[in-house]
Amino acid sequence: MDLTHRPRRLREDRVRELVSETSLEPADLIAPVFIDATTAERQPIESMPGHERVPIEDSVARVEEVLETGVEAVMLFGIPESKDAKGTRAWAEDGVVQEATRRITAETDAYVITDVCLCEYTEHGHCGTLEPGIRETETGSREDPSLTVDNDATLESLRKTAISHAVAGADMVAPSSMTDGMVGAIRDELDGEGFDDVPIMSYAAKYESAFYGPFRDAADGAPAFGDRRHYQMDPANAREAMREVRLDVKQGADVLLVKPALPYLDIVADVRREFEQPVAAYNVSGEYAMLHAAAEKGWLNLEETARESLLSIKRAGADLILTYFAEDIAEQLR
């Protein structure tokens, strides 16, 4: 029996950390923050234990809580005071994200990334302007299941939303609607208005996933009818993800995000191998909620499984991780 090679030699406590291949740091993490223009006090999100919707007046205090843990970046999601068919509050000068961004950038050192999408702002809950002929019926279905979001009309809304965030002081914008051409349209708008230094984190490979449920409660952005299969990616497809990412790179994406994370680690790894841009992964609400649910049953250790989950995302190739565990894990790491 040849035991010349003994990998266990490098698993002894004093050497284990020296040969560790992957590290996780607070600076790798981005914390989502939900700003709610409809409330005067913090509202717990039942399906996401430990998270809240906070009023605009509390936005600075909420971000300061994040910064105290060592996390340096936040992603802002807004719940507007009113909604309409086109989601016009998404680009309003006095909109919820715009006002929160102004306050946070003026009073903290946080790096502020803003979600650029319309699902929280449209009364129908879809990520853009609907094509002509679509309406909700009494049974909640669409008149024509082949019709969906009007791609090119939505581009104009995304342009206006992104520039309004930049004007308010956003450090980075993150379009998440999976609209064809969204990165190029936003890059063109930002550059044309003198914001050529504002980077774009593109949701370059965003799948139509069952893991988004708790987020839609948190952001009040669930579709009023139908689903998002006509514009978000088929979970069965990997080669298509490379095509989507490649298109966003050509249009000027600075950071490439894969969503969700854990069920799509193969995609994270593929994007890391194929492209030079920083890679981000979104450890989504369902991934967060299922660990909490199992921990509440006593089936898993929450701290250990959360940290292992984020480490696996980092090991797969993500440089940045957008996660609801950001604060808890950052405190552990410190």
Please describe what this structure looks like.
This protein has 334 residues and is α/β, with parallel strands linked by helices. It has a single domain, classed as Aldolase class I (TIM Barrel), CATH 3.20.20. Helix content is 36%, strand content 15%. The chain has eleven helices and ten strands. Strands 1, 2, 3, 4, 5, 6, 7, 8, 9 and 10 form a ten-stranded mixed sheet that branches. InterPro entries: ALAD (IPR001731), ALAD_AS (IPR030656), Aldolase_TIM (IPR013785). It holds the Pfam family ALAD. This is Delta-aminolevulinic acid dehydratase. Pathway: Porphyrin-containing compound metabolism; protoporphyrin-IX biosynthesis; coproporphyrinogen-III from 5-aminolevulinate: step 1/4. Belongs to the ALAD family.
Give the number of domains.
1
Radius of gyration: 20 Å
Q: So what's the CATH class?
A: Alpha Beta
Helix content: 25-40%
CATH architecture descriptor name: Alpha-Beta Barrel
**What coarse outline follows from CA principal-axis ratios?**
globular
Overall strand count? 10
Structural class, from helix and strand content?
A: alpha/beta
Terminus-to-terminus distance: 44 Å
- Enter the CATH topology name: TIM Barrel
Portion of residues in beta strands equals 15-25%
Number of DSSP helical runs: 11
Regions with pLDDT < 50 over 5+ consecutive residues? none
Main beta sheet: strand number and arrangement? 10 strands, mixed
**Annotated CATH homologous superfamily:** Aldolase class I
Compressed to H and E, one letter per element, the order equals: HEEEHEHEHEHEHHEHEHHEH
Average per-residue pLDDT, rounded, comes to: 90
Pfam families: ALAD (PF00490)
Protein name: Delta-aminolevulinic acid dehydratase
Catalytic activity: 2 5-aminolevulinate = porphobilinogen + 2 H2O + H(+)
GO biological process, one term: protoporphyrinogen IX biosynthetic process
